[in-house]
Amino acid sequence: MSLLKLILSLSLIIFSMSVSSKEVVDCAHKQLGIPYKWGGHSPKTGFDCSGLAYYCHKFTIPRVSRDQAARNKINTKSVKPGDLLFFAKNGRIHHTAIFIGNNMYIEAPYTGKNVRKQKMGRKVASASRYWK
């Protein structure tokens, strides 16, 4: 790894820890009802799943699900509000959601749907924590 890549990676980790779990959860709640938009990361244009997480972490975490899942991993049994949940299909991460507590998460599901609250039911493949 080059020195520049190392510095950028460390910066990403340090800056990502500048948002609190409450800020992440509050942000996610404010986006309820915003339409799904593939590649979207703004309430003005809509959100895809990883774009919602990216926006609620103030653009300080990786942009796509697989990269979000690759860093700051935590045990899926110890998730707290503000943590990111990842779901897999055929062994590959394909979806991100924000855990909000009480066995619930907020997600930008897919085309034709809006950002919504969901009860835990699907098997979580992994989880990450980016808040301080």
Description:
With 132 residues, the chain is of the alpha+beta class. The chain has a single domain (3-128), classed as endopeptidase fold (from Nostoc punctiforme), CATH 3.90.1720.10. 29% of the residues lie in helices and 25% in strands. It is built from 4 helices and 8 strands; from the N terminus they run ααββααββββββ. Helix 2 (21-30) packs across helix 3 (49-56). The two termini are 26 Å apart.
Give a short synopsis of this structure.
It contains four helices and eight strands.
The amount of helix comes to 25-40%
Helices, by number, come to 4
Alpha carbon gyration radius: 14 Å
What's the oligomerization state?
Answer: single chain
Order of helices and strands: HHEEHHEEEEEE
What is the averaged pLDDT score?
91
Counted up, domains total 1
Question: Which characteristics define this entry?
Answer:
132 residues; alpha+beta; endopeptidase fold (from Nostoc punctiforme); six-stranded antiparallel beta sheet; two-stranded antiparallel ribbon
